[in-house]
Amino acid sequence: MDNYVRIFDTTLRDGEQSPGASMTSTEKLEIARTLSKLGVDIMEAGFPAASPDDLEAVRRIAIEVGNRPDGTRPPIICGLARASRLDIDKAWEAVRHAARPRIHTFLATSEIHMQYKLKMDREQVVERVVEMVGYARSLCEDIEFSPEDAGRSDPSFLYLVLGEAIKAGATTLNIPDTVGYTTPEEFGALIDGILKNTPGIDNCIVSVHCHDDLGLATANTLAGIRAGARQAEVTVNGIGERAGNTSLEEVVMALHTRRPIFGLTTGIDTTQIARASKLVSNYTGIVVPPNKAIVGANAFAHEAGIHQDGMLKHHTTYEIMRPESVGVTRTKLVLGKHSGRHALKTRLVELGYPLSEPELDKAFERFKLLADKKKTITDADLEALVADEFYQPREVFTLDGLQVTCGTMGMPTATVRLRGPDGQVHVHAAIGTGPVDATYKAIDAIVKAPNTLQEFAIHAITEGIDALGEVTVRIEGTDGMRQLDPQREVEHARTFSGHGAETDIIVASAKAYLAALNKMLIATGQYRPVEASARAEMT
Ligand code: KIV
Ligand code: ZN
After folding, report:
1. C-beta of 487 in contact with ligand 1 (< 6 A)
2. Whose CA is nearest to atom 2 of ligand 1?
3. What are 160-198's pLDDT values in tens digits?
């Protein structure tokens, strides 16, 4: 057995199935590029049968990320398909453009799923697996099969189904603990049993795919790897259905940090982890909790006095990984009011943001405005600024001005000035229960895109009264846009997230809301985005 663990990232598929995480195809492409830089071996780019838009997003990723003009090996691009010809055809249509395509098909094998969801008996399940894996293999050389809810399936039935899937042409067998039910001992034993009892398994890769309902996803994944699995299915920040999937950063850093006990390697460039985490959080609107392992804001903060004392004596007293190893920079005081364009450029390149000259012009303009308000500008500020300026959806409506009055003496009132897709300026004033409510009401009166606000989160990027405030919002359109969940076979309402970062939190709130609205307007086809050059001419 080799000592290389393949990292299969499913942020764009299982991650996107988490409530509210839906992304635009441009955002998915940007995340796919980042995953490729991170060094994932396989990326599950989506579920192409969900809709023509989903198929197109996977196809774009297959073309642009699944091929490398420099001749280096690109990641495998995988598409998910239920065990049906239609789904498999759509998955193939999307991934076949990649240099290394994969089709991943699945069918449930637990008694609960077979009886209540599939309404099929064991024989019918085996028959369908053989037929669909065989069909997928007639199109594509690289086939992954998953017996859904394997964690609650009868192991002897699993050996049989997996053996038949191998005979039909499966090359990777993925074992999902779909509902996050197992314990590490059980899951490790399940993988061990599969490796020992499944006919033909020696020529296949065994993969593990765990969910975190009991908080055991990473422990179960590592137990599966110790038992012999050589592919781990993970998502950035652990996003995914319900409590989420196994998080990429936790598995990779556990293998990396405890190498002497695992004796295994991955192809991940760990220094790209922090950046990937930030991007996924920005695009999905799923905020990373401060205490999240590896990528949480406090993961490398040593606040308690006793810890600081230890850290000053030697960092290994309380630190098992260097923050730099996951791309977190320690520098606190970076730039200030008198820093020039060159200093900004150099620092951004060091942080992994090699901007083009026009982008740098914009970033420098924003930097100067920020430096007027904030004495010291840290790496975290710079990253927020770049995210706010460049990781935004293309614009339909832009914020042209905002004035708010609030407090205890009178009604909170906001006057909002927006520039619309036609270049016209629209002004509206509204009162609300607070300044954000008033601002959102004024925006609604201009944009006229009915929605419900599902989430509003605000946090300070750095310490201090002059800190940048970052706002994340999530809205659900009331126009009936739906998204298909491949496992539950139900549709749920599509949601859109947006974020904004400013020293003025009401401005940040307005920008975040507009970003989410713009995404929704483009996705529903109501408006086409205004290209930057056209916008410049209008203003
Ligand atoms: O959790 C699960 O069972 C899945 C399958 C589609 C692999 O995501
Ligand atoms: Zn899953």
Report:
1. yes
2. 178
3. 999 999 999 999 999 999 999 999 999 999 999 999 999
